[in-house]
Design goal:
By secondary structure, this protein is α/β, with parallel strands linked by helices. The chain is built from eleven helices and eight strands. The longest helix has 18 residues, at 231-248. The radius of gyration is 21 Å and the shape is globular. Bound molecules: zinc ion.
């Protein structure tokens, strides 16, 4: 029997038929380890006045399952948010904000902001560094100048470093980071954030990697040979670029890192699509809500 790799649309709708089922689900994740009052730390509660909310027996603080999560102050109903999350996390390409806005009848800016918040939850926890064999390479990608939209002729190039793991000859997980330059001080960040110090690492001949060898002994430098040595890595780079251009047109340089995070959040769970939505929900519940101005400020 073929293993079920996707949470099917039908299974999703059976699990989340209405807003109540969504609130109930969030409550089950939020208080999985037991209830503690956010205000006074008391551990006993009774049912509050909002859907599946819990009211502290001591100080009477009534906490909704959505409070202190990315769903806080949502501009549309929770069921719609779940439907959008299904599309974002399970569709191979991840849906863009224009499509989401049309499909679910919300303003594009609203869909865009929601997507941005979801991307914050998709950022790597840095707890599971790449191991075994890891290939590291750099590439450039065009981004429009600030204030311009669509396919700009005066695009700037953003530099990106990518690390991809190989296990038994097959691509495993990967990460990418936007970098300001190609110095060892800049390039080492992806090693420190995402690569296990014991990994066997292949890079191109660029001298900055030589300087990183003191910390990452497994580095072996190979001449790029027009991409021949990093064939599988270049396929991934091409897929990533196609996704950015095809699904999101272009994105401003300030937001590029978040799209890279989103791409690899899905890529790293591509063989586990049945519970990708649950993993994302757990992160959403644990992530502090960001406002539009906070998101703009971070991208600037
Ligand atoms: Zn309390």
């Amino acid at each position: 029997m073929k293993l079920l790799k996707t949470l099917t649309r039908q299974a999703f709708h059976e699990r989340f038929p209405d807003a109540d089922s969504c609130y109930s689900y969030l409550a089950s994740i939020k208080w999985k380890q037991g209830y503690t009052c956010k205000r006074c730390g008391h551990s006993r509660w009774y049912a509050g006045s909002k859907p599946h909310s819990r009211r502290c027996l001591q100080c009477k603080y009534d906490e909704s399952p959505t409070a202190h999560t990315l769903f806080h102050k949502l501009k549309f109903n929770l069921h719609t948010a779940f439907l959008m999350l299904y599309e974002i996390s399970t569709s191979k390409k991840g849906s863009n904000s224009i499509w989401l806005a049309e499909r679910f009848g919300v303003q594009q800016k609203t869909a865009w902001l929601f997507r941005q918040k979801v991307q914050e939850a998709m950022e790597s926890s840095r707890q599971y560094p790449l191991s075994d064999h890891v290939h590291v390479d750099e590439f450039e990608i065009g981004t429009p100048q600030p204030g311009e939209y669509g396919r700009s002729k005066t695009e700037k190039k953003a530099r990106v470093v990518i690390a991809l793991e190989y296990r038994k000859g097959k691509p495993g997980r990967g990460y990418a980071q936007v970098i300001g330059d190609y110095s060892s001080g800049t390039l080492i960040k992806i090693f420190d954030d995402h690569i296990d110090p014991t990994a066997q690492i292949e890079t191109d001949g660029w001298s900055a990697y030589g300087a990183i060898k003191s910390w990452y002994k497994g580095i072996e430098q190979k001449l790029s040979n027009k991409g021949q040595n990093f064939n599988m890595l270049h396929i991934q780079i091409r897929n990533l670029k196609n996704w950015l251009r095809g699904v999101h047109s272009f994105c401003e340089a300030g937001y590029l890192q978040k799209y890279l995070n989103e791409y690899f959040f899905r890529f790293n769970r591509r063989n586990n699509r049945t519970n990708i939505l649950d993993r994302l929900m757990e992160r959403i519940v644990a992530t502090q809500p960001a406002t539009y101005s906070m998101i703009r400020a971070r991208a600037a």
